[in-house]
């Protein structure tokens, strides 16, 4: 049993006190964690700074030895250079003149030329060392030979000496001389450090490293460096809080791999926090002092939001405790009323149960809960006997009361072992209800059957008159070009499709439809669908591309009628949802599964809505799209999906708003084996020049031509002078000779003139018929042309002009090739005109016509047709030359 917290005044007070204590503990932990984090951060920073300062000290120890051992010693042993110059600024102060001005040097006191040369060497060395440095660096060299002092610094010493005279530089130099003389006189101190100092000129902080070198017979030489530390100190740590002092707890045996934080110490001195980091190879300590008040203010700033939240929670808890203590926490009358309402609701639930319910307490022999059914049966029941019998039959038994059979279920209470639960169900009433349900189901099935028969007969009754109306409207639309007739025809076709869909869907629901498999040609089916969709495509100005990757003569085994129904229905839906753009129908198979056909219908419409996609699983569930020519059917997707499922395939629809819709169909259509024979293909030996700008159309046409045995050439692949039989293009400006003009809105093919046809590239049969008709005309024309050429050749030979012809015409033909290659249209026009004159003089009409065509192509700068016509002229001239040589 769950423990209930007694809501008394004392418990509420204790709860709020504990809550406030938890808040205070959490606040203390946060403050302690923040202070520890701050101290740890500063200790790491101090350890890093101490390491960097130690590296700088070690580096300048090496520099000190370099200056003393190499520069000063080598300068003393070599004769001084004669080009060294110095400027006397004032008594005993000399400025060293030099070309490089990174550092400047001053010499204080009397000195000789060797000291001047040594100063130049040290200054040059320090120019190299400090060339990339930005802080202020200074070096002081107290020469034990002549007791002169050399100062080399990155400060503008000459300007400062002239401007401030004896105030700044002189005081600084005198202080350094005094420190260095004291260092030289100290016998037991070879190296010493100064505390941190502040350079007012550059606002820099630095300390001085002094090193003493004893020389027998001379005063000690002292080298001192002012080492800046501003570039080593983090920006969030004020420089004024740092100190450099002697380490009282020097430990030279510290491990070099010890943690950086362990080398620092934190101590509370007066009202400050001191963080000290030792410099291992020196007797110094780097100390960072922070006032305790500053530390507390930083911690409070970092914990501002947690402190505010804790304060708000603390105030809320106090106010809540005061408000709750002012109110009475005893149960009110509202709780009693709620218990009464729950009891009444419990009685209503028990009374409305369709079975008898009885809860009986055998300890007190009284009924705890019951309804009218149980009260009616209770005088006729022996409850103790029912308990004993139900234990032997898994708590269920049957009893007959007043010739009525009841099922009695018994269960024991888990909470009270003496309380028993009985449920009594009238079996006769349930039997009667089941019979009524069976009868209602029979009536429902009969209604479904009647509805199916009604729809079947109604569809067949409407099909015949609708077909007559559609056929008459088709004839009428062919005779009259009236828009209203087309609208009526479109509406009547939509009504016929709707009736046919209703009949077919009714047969599918009645399981009266099965696939009618037969052998059919897939390309012919696609031609029929493209031809049927053509009128609406032309009315809406849409483009259609039928891309069949399979061979034209491929034969499949399946239900042709069902496949045609699926494709035409989806095509009609795509036409309605597409306002502009194109529709692509692509057919292909996978290499691993040649018997499974993949059909993809893609449109560039506005896409499908969620309501339209819901129609895939149930017809007319959502609204469908419509255009000015009609509205899409709400059962189209459901019907297509059911047909694909019946044929063993699937339908998947993917739509994207404002992009389009993709219909993916997968159907198992068995590929029939081809009978291999030795017959050549229908266009075997035909060469076609294909000049199509649209890549998809180019691939489709080339695939058709190759399947028919023709050879395809493109302008890029064509060799100069190579001949072709037929030209196929989609650009009317490129038409020349025997050619086909491709279009997408042509219902078949028709002749533009004697040598050119216009044909729809989506209709393979129309394309083949146009090619065959063109080839037939070309053959008959060639026979007539051969007779004409024979007559012209006879006139050429008989006239005695053959020698003139052979000397001039072949050269002009070669000139045509050369000038067309460099696109010299002016010279090309002159050559073509000259050839035309020769052909006209010799009465060679075909050659004259070819030259006239060439002149026309030169005027419009059509390079492709220029090459084709030049090749034709070359072939014609070669033919005449062969006749003349025979």
From TrEMBL:
<dbReference type="Pfam" id="PF01627">
    <property type="entry name" value="Hpt"/>
</dbReference>
<dbReference type="InterPro" id="IPR036097">
    <property type="entry name" value="HisK_dim/P_sf"/>
</dbReference>
<comment type="subunit">
    <text>Interacts with RcsC and RcsB.</text>
</comment>
<keyword id="KW-0547">Nucleotide-binding</keyword>
<comment type="function">
    <text>Component of the Rcs signaling system, which controls transcription of numerous genes. RcsD is a phosphotransfer intermediate between the sensor kinase RcsC and the response regulator RcsB. It acquires a phosphoryl group from RcsC and transfers it to RcsB.</text>
</comment>
<dbReference type="GO" id="GO:0005886">
    <property type="term" value="C:plasma membrane"/>
</dbReference>
<feature type="domain" description="Histidine kinase">
    <location>
        <begin position="457"/>
        <end position="671"/>
    </location>
</feature>
<protein>
    <recommendedName>
        <fullName>Phosphotransferase RcsD</fullName>
        <ecNumber>2.7.2.-</ecNumber>
    </recommendedName>
</protein>
<feature type="modified residue" description="Phosphohistidine">
    <location>
        <position position="833"/>
    </location>
</feature>
<dbReference type="InterPro" id="IPR038616">
    <property type="entry name" value="RcsD_ABL_sf"/>
</dbReference>
<keyword id="KW-1003">Cell membrane</keyword>
<dbReference type="GO" id="GO:0005524">
    <property type="term" value="F:ATP binding"/>
</dbReference>
<feature type="transmembrane region" description="Helical">
    <location>
        <begin position="12"/>
        <end position="31"/>
    </location>
</feature>
<keyword id="KW-0418">Kinase</keyword>
<dbReference type="InterPro" id="IPR036641">
    <property type="entry name" value="HPT_dom_sf"/>
</dbReference>
<keyword id="KW-0067">ATP-binding</keyword>
<dbReference type="GO" id="GO:0016774">
    <property type="term" value="F:phosphotransferase activity, carboxyl group as acceptor"/>
</dbReference>
<dbReference type="InterPro" id="IPR030861">
    <property type="entry name" value="Ptransferase_RcsD"/>
</dbReference>
<dbReference type="InterPro" id="IPR008207">
    <property type="entry name" value="Sig_transdc_His_kin_Hpt_dom"/>
</dbReference>
<dbReference type="GO" id="GO:0009927">
    <property type="term" value="F:histidine phosphotransfer kinase activity"/>
</dbReference>
<feature type="transmembrane region" description="Helical">
    <location>
        <begin position="303"/>
        <end position="324"/>
    </location>
</feature>
<dbReference type="Pfam" id="PF16359">
    <property type="entry name" value="RcsD_ABL"/>
</dbReference>
<keyword id="KW-1133">Transmembrane helix</keyword>
<keyword id="KW-0808">Transferase</keyword>
<keyword id="KW-0472">Membrane</keyword>
<keyword id="KW-0997">Cell inner membrane</keyword>
<feature type="domain" description="HPt">
    <location>
        <begin position="794"/>
        <end position="886"/>
    </location>
</feature>
<dbReference type="Pfam" id="PF02518">
    <property type="entry name" value="HATPase_c"/>
</dbReference>
<dbReference type="InterPro" id="IPR003594">
    <property type="entry name" value="HATPase_dom"/>
</dbReference>
<dbReference type="InterPro" id="IPR005467">
    <property type="entry name" value="His_kinase_dom"/>
</dbReference>
<keyword id="KW-0812">Transmembrane</keyword>
<dbReference type="GO" id="GO:0000155">
    <property type="term" value="F:phosphorelay sensor kinase activity"/>
</dbReference>
<comment type="similarity">
    <text>Belongs to the RcsD family.</text>
</comment>
<keyword id="KW-0597">Phosphoprotein</keyword>
<dbReference type="InterPro" id="IPR036890">
    <property type="entry name" value="HATPase_C_sf"/>
</dbReference>
<dbReference type="InterPro" id="IPR032306">
    <property type="entry name" value="RcsD_ABL"/>
</dbReference>
<keyword id="KW-0902">Two-component regulatory system</keyword>
């Amino acid at each position: 049993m769950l423990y209930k917290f007694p809501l008394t005044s004392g418990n509420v007070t204790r709860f709020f006190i504990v809550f406030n204590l938890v808040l205070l503990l959490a606040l203390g932990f946060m403050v302690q964690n923040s202070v520890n984090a701050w101290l740890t951060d500063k200790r790491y920073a101090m350890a890093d700074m101490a390491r960097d300062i130690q590296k700088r000290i070690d580096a300048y120890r090496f520099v000190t030895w370099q200056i003393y051992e190499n520069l000063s010693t080598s300068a003393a042993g070599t004769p001084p250079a004669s080009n060294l110059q110095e400027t006397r600024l004032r008594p005993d102060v000399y400025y060293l003149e030099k070309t490089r001005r990174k550092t400047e040097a001053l010499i204080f006191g009397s000195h000789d030329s060797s000291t001047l040369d040594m100063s130049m060497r040290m200054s040059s060395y320090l120019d190299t060392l400090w060339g990339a440095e930005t802080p202020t660096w200074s070096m002081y060299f107290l020469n034990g030979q002549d007791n002169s002092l050399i100062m080399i610094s990155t400060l503008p010493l000459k300007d400062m000496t002239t401007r401030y005279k004896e105030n700044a530089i002189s005081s600084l130099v005198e202080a350094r001389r005094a420190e260095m003389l004291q260092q030289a006189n100290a016998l037991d101190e070879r190296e010493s450090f100064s505390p941190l100092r502040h350079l007012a000129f550059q606002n820099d902080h630095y300390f001085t490293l002094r090193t003493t070198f004893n020389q027998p017979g001379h005063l000690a030489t002292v080298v001192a460096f002012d080492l800046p530390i501003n570039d080593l100190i983090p920006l969030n740590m004020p420089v004024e809080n740092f100190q450099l002092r002697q380490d009282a707890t020097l430990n030279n045996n510290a491990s070099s791999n010890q943690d950086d934080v362990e080398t620092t110490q934190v101590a509370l001195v007066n009202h400050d926090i001191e963080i000290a980091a030792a410099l291992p190879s020196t007797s110094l300590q780097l100390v960072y002092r922070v006032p305790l008040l500053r530390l507390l203010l930083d911690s409070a700033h970092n914990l501002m939001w947690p402190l505010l939240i804790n304060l708000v929670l603390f105030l809320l808890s106090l106010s809540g405790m005061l408000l709750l203590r002012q109110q009475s926490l005893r149960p009110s009358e509202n709780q009693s009323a709620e218990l009464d309402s729950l009891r009444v609701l419990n009685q209503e639930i028990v009374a409305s149960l369709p079975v008898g319910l009885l809860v009986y307490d055998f300890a007190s022999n009284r009924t705890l809960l019951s309804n009218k059914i149980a009260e009616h049966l209770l005088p006729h029941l022996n409850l103790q006997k029912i308990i004993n019998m139900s234990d032997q039959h898994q708590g269920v038994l049957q009893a007959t009361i007043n010739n009525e059979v009841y099922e009695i279920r018994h269960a024991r209470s888990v909470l009270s072992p003496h309380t028993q639960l009985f449920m009594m169900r009238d079996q006769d009433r349930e039997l009667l209800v089941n019979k009524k349900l069976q009868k209602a189901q029979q009536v429902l099935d009969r209604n479904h059957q009647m509805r199916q028969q009604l729809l079947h007969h109604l569809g067949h009754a409407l099909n015949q008159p609708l077909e007559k109306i559609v056929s008459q409207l088709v004839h009428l639309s062919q005779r009259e070009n009236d828009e209203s007739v087309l609208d009526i025809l479109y509406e009547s076709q939509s009504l016929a499709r709707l009736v046919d869909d209703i009949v077919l869907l009714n047969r599918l629901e009645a399981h009266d439809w099965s696939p009618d498999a037969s052998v059919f040609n897939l390309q012919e089916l696609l031609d029929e669908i493209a031809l049927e969709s053509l009128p609406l495509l032309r009315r809406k100005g849409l483009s259609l591309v039928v891309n069949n990757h399979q061979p034209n003569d491929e034969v499949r085994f399946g239900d042709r009628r069902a496949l045609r129904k699926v494709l035409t229905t989806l095509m009609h839906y795509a036409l309605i949802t597409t306002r502009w753009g194109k529709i692509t129908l692509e057919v292909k198979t996978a290499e691993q599964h040649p018997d499974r056909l993949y059909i993809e219908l893609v449109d560039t419409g506005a896409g499908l809505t969620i309501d339209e996609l819901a129609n895939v699983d149930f017809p007319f569930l959502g609204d469908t799209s419509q255009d000015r020519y009609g509205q899409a059917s709400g059962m189209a997707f459901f019907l297509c999906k059911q047909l694909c499922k019946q044929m063993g395939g699937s339908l998947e629809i993917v739509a994207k708003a404002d992009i389009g819709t993709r219909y993916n169909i997968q159907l198992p259509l068995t590929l029939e084996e081809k009978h291999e024979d030795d017959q050549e293909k229908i266009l075997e030996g035909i060469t076609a020049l294909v000049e199509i700008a649209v890549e998809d159309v180019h691939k489709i046409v080339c695939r058709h031509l190759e399947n028919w045995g023709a050879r395809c050439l493109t302008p890029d692949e064509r060799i100069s002078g190579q001949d072709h039989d037929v030209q196929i293009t989609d650009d009317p400006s490129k038409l020349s000779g025997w050619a086909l003009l491709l279009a997408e809105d042509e219902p078949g093919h028709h002749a533009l003139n004697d040598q050119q046809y216009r044909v729809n590239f989506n209709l393979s049969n129309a394309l083949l018929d146009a090619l065959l008709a063109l080839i037939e005309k070309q053959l008959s024309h060639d026979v007539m042309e051969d007779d004409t050429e024979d007559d012209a050749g006879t006139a050429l030979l008989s006239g005695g002009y053959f020698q003139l012809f052979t000397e001039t015409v072949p050269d002009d033909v070669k000139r045509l090739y050369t000038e067309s290659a460099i696109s010299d249209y002016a010279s090309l026009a002159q050559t073509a005109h000259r050839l035309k004159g020769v052909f006209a003089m010799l009465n060679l009409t075909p050659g004259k016509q070819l030259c006239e065509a060439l002149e026309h192509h030169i005027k419009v700068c059509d390079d492709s047709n220029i090459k084709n016509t030049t090749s034709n002229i070359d072939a014609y001239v070669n033919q005449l030359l062969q006749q003349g040589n025979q």
